[in-house]
Amino acid sequence: MMIPNLLPSLVIRQFVISSIASLSAFALLFSPVAAQTVSTDGENWQVALTSDGHPDLQGNWTNATLTPMERPDNLGAVLTQEQVVALESGHADSVALRSEPSDSNRPLPPGGDDPVCIDGATTCYDEVWREPGDRVAMVLGEPRSSLVTSPVDGRVPTLTATTLNLIEELDLQRRGFGPYDHPELRPLAERCIVSFESSAGPPMIPNYWYNNNYTIVQTPEYVMIMAEMVHDVRIIRLGEPTSLGEEIRPWFGDSWGKWEGNTLVVETTNMNPKFAFREVPGSDDGKVMERFTRVDEDTILYEFMIDDLTNYTSVWGGQIPFKKFGEPIYEYACHEGNYALTNILSGARYQENRKEN
Known about the structure:
alpha+beta, nine-stranded mixed beta barrel, two-stranded antiparallel ribbon, 4 helices
């Protein structure tokens, strides 16, 4: 079996909660959302339309949130108001603490070949660089405890034995090389090829770090979604599906969409095996379904479903509110010349030369 060259620094997440998505949960996740909603002041709100008569999803949006991907064991699907206040105020207190001036007399951080992130005042970004969100995700008026909604326990299903074996083989493959032997052994995100985690998707999941912002542009034939993180861009074709062919596998898969009433439905196949979603490589048979519904002036309800029984023991999915982002999104330049990568590799050769001599 051909083993794809994936991110060399994968840390294998062990999904220990086994669950099966029931048909009722699946139907609930992908049931259509009403085209018209009622605002908090009781007045009817009607979605704006583009010139070709479809709901206008355009603009800048953010999915930053305090709600985790998976539900903690001690919480129900919907948080109480007391739990919401505790989470949001606790986060605000934590931000205030981490934003205090650094101690100018602090010692140097430890050195070594693999320096670790201790805190924001030493080897990591401090609080001014971070923007993980400050609110619990509200979906259809409910404060959610997890972004995953199906299976009903709010947990990602366990990986299949096939995928666990593949991940182990990949790990053994990587051990035959040094981490700096070749540029393609460095992570895709480090090389500014794709975003960290799964910002661009599909599915488009917040990274809980920063740059969880998006720009959406529509035409009658295409929908473009640009993720701020590493300026990833998805081009979604509209209309009748026309496959790119199995041999063509873009980084974010092959996406086409259609309008079902006021909802944009997007199907993505042809996953790239070199791109991992939550450290799980894309499979030949994997498919992601997404639904974009403008539910009010400031919110797009984003729903996703992953049908990939090669990697997971059951179908799973979730719901994420995308909130209007009233600020411009600036260029994420990354390091386009890959100067840092050149320096990393040349530094490794220098260290090897010193050891040999």
